[in-house]
Amino acid sequence: MFFDGSRYLRVKEYAVRGPDGRLVKVKRMRLTPLTEGTFLYEVKQGDRLDLLAYRFYRSARKWWLICDANPRFMRPQALLTPGELLIIPPDRTG
Fold this sequence. Notes:
Elements: E1 13-17, E2 23-27, E3 39-42, H1 49-57, H2 63-69, E4 85-88
Antiparallel strand pairs: 1-2, 3-4
Helix pairs in contact: 1-2
């Protein structure tokens, strides 16, 4: 269900009963780890999280590392306002 390297891959599952009475497997809430940034990056017009992840980590799928390091933004889209400073953390996924 989750791709190799997904931040949810190792999160434990549990079962809940849905409104129709069937058991449904769901993931437990994932805690966002404290992340110390490597450097700051100023967002440019046209930046996208997947492109930034590819630029800094050589993998577009690691966009969530940038999200985790910038918890003051409630939505990933809010990270992409031109002129905003983002913390770019080290790649802790290996």
